[in-house]
Each structure stands twice: as C-alpha cells, then as structure tokens.
Write a structure and sequence with these properties.
This protein has 11 helices and 10 strands. By secondary structure, it is an alpha/beta fold. Helix 1 links the parallel strand 2 and strand 3.
Length: 261
C-alpha cells in the first residue's frame, strides 16, 4: 500500500513505520492519522510481520496534532468527532495489535505524538528524546489514550503532574520514571532498536500477542478474572507449535527456532 505521510517498510519480519512530515516535526494531520492506522491494521493481517517499529523522520518523533489543520478548520469542525474518527481508531489499532510494537523515540514526542509513543509496548529513547503532554498549554485535556495509558505506566501523581504542567520530560527523567525501557546515544538509536526488533520478530509471536491481550484485559478486571483469563489463553499458547519447539529445544539443549505460531 502506498502512503504519502508515512513510510512503511517490511524487512525480515519487522515492519518499520516512519512518521514523515519532518517540516512540522511530524505533526499528525488527518491523512497521517489515517495512514498510520492503516499500517497498523495491515500489520495485524500480515503473518510475515512479527514486530513493528514506529519512529519519526528528522529531529522529532511527533509534535502531535497539526495545529495548522485545526486553525484552518471550518465552523462545523468538532474535536470530539476528530478524535472518534481518527486518533481513537489509531490507538485502538495499536493496543489491539497482538504483536510487539517498539517506539523508537528519536526526539520530542508531544501531545497526541506522546500518546502514540505511550501506546507502543516498548519505548527506546534517544538521549535527545523528550516527552511533553503539552495539551494544557493550549487549554485542552490529554487525549488519544493518554489519560488511560500514562497513569498506568508511571502512576497517577507523575501522570497528573505531566498533564497539568506540560513540562518537558527528558530522556533521563523518563527512564527514572519507568516511562521508557532504554535510553541510547542518539547515533545508536536505530541500531539498538533493530536489535530489539530482530529479537522480538524471531520470538514466539503468538505468546507475545496473548501476553499483551491478557495484560491489557488485566487493567480492567479482578485477580480472579485474570487468573481465569490466563488459564484460557495459556491453553491456547500450549497448543502452539512454538510451545512444542520451546520444550524440545530445552531438552536438546539448543536454541529454539520459533515460527510465531
Ligand atoms: C508544528 C507543530 C504542530 C503544526 C511544531 N502543528 N506545526 C487532538 C484533536 C484536535 C485538536 C487538538 O489536539 C489534539 C491532540 C494534540 O496533539 S494537542 C497538542 C498539539 N501539539 C502542540 O501543541 C505542540 C506544538 N509544538 C510545540 O510546542 C513545539 O513545536 C515543540 C515543543 C513540539 C518543539 O519545539 P521546537 O523544538 O522549539 O520546534 P518549533 O516550535 O520551532 O517547531 C519547528 C517547526 O514545526 C515550526 O515551523 P516553522 O515553519 O516555524 O519552522 C512549527 O510551527 C512546526 N510545528 N509543532 N503541532
């Protein structure tokens, strides 16, 4: 599929999505929201894709909503509808994708751009990266999943602080808050992310996907419900070829070769 606001490239079972509007620091206009959502939906259908990387071109990850598009809006423009028809679908496509998503945060991630980074499963940040909730600077509340994702990732106090101050959280602070998994020297970011993606795309993809499903479901259910849900999903995982391969490899004292099924 051809895209004009993003690049999507699949190599060795890894799909890399690059937000590609560098002049506006990869601000999301309606087209980029749609195209990014399509890329994630395609990744869900394509069995050859076993992990996804999302990053930004140029010096930023994403500056969030394209404010030019909002200021050029017609009188009947509704932000609520813009969210329902756009960002909400994008965030749901990411959270429901049963394959690991790595955000390679190469620079600033602001507003909805920050939300998209939060919706990834793993965040690897360049030392130049930063996270700004930014919404309150323009009199808005966090959207695109940030009110749900951020307190779960770093706890309510820090999440609320980020939301109401709109302060820039540096990569150094982000790692100490548990907002990112790893901070890298700027020049090594993509090399290190490629290593992560390569490892993940040769892993037991079905188990990785079911793990994500169980953890996301776990956010909104009791321990008793989660124990039951784990039992059901483990039943599925235990019938996979990868489980069989994993056990055989253990007894033969060799590395497993997972097929992702
Ligand atoms: C931009 C943008 C941008 C357009 C930089 N748009 N051009 C959802 C639903 C509907 C409505 C509202 O919102 C939402 C969700 C949201 O995402 S709300 C939050 C929207 N985003 C922002 O408010 C962030 C605005 N940008 C900034 O605060 C700064 O640009 C940051 C802190 C991201 C980076 O600062 P600097 O590194 O100093 O870069 P800069 O400000 O000089 O920007 C570079 C260029 O990018 C500049 O254009 P120019 O032609 O002067 O070079 C900016 O105008 C443009 N740009 N963000 N969101």
């Amino acid at each position: 599929m051809e895209f004009s606001t993003i690049k999507a490239e699949s190599v060795h079972n890894v799909l890399t999505i690059t937000l590609n509007r560098p002049k506006s620091l990869n601000a999301f206009n309606s087209k980029m929201i749609k195209e990014t959502t399509s890329a994630f939906k395609q990744a869900a259908k394509d069995n050859d894709v076993r992990s996804v990387v999302i990053t930004g071109s140029g010096r930023a990850f994403s500056s969030g909503q394209d404010l030019k598009e909002v200021s050029d809006r017609q009188d009947d423009f509704s932000i609520g509808q813009h969210l329902r028809q756009g960002y909400n679908k994008l965030i749901l496509a990411m959270i429901s994708l049963e394959k690991p998503i790595i955000a390679a945060v190469n620079g600033v991630a602001a507003g909805a751009g920050c939300s998209v980074a939060l919706a990834a499963d793993i965040r690897i940040a360049s030392e130049n990266a930063s996270f700004i909730q930014v919404f309150s600077r323009i009199g808005l509340i966090p959207d695109s999943g940030s009110t749900w994702l951020l307190p779960r990732l770093i706890g309510y106090a820090r999440a609320y602080e980020m939301a109401i101050t709109s302060d820039r959280i540096t990569a150094e602070k982000a790692i100490s808050w548990g907002l990112v998994n790893q901070v890298t020297p700027a020049v090594q970011l993509m090399e290190i992310v490629e290593d992560w993606a390569k490892t993940l795309s040769t892993g037991p993809t079905l188990a990785y996907g079911l793990t994500k499903r169980a953890m996301v479901r776990g956010y909104s259910q009791s321990l008793v419900q989660s124990l039951e849900y784990e039992s059901q999903l483990q039943e599925l995982a235990s019938r996979s070829e990868d489980f069989n391969e994993g056990v055989q490899a253990f007894f033969k004292k060799r590395d497993p070769v997972f097929q992702g099924k």
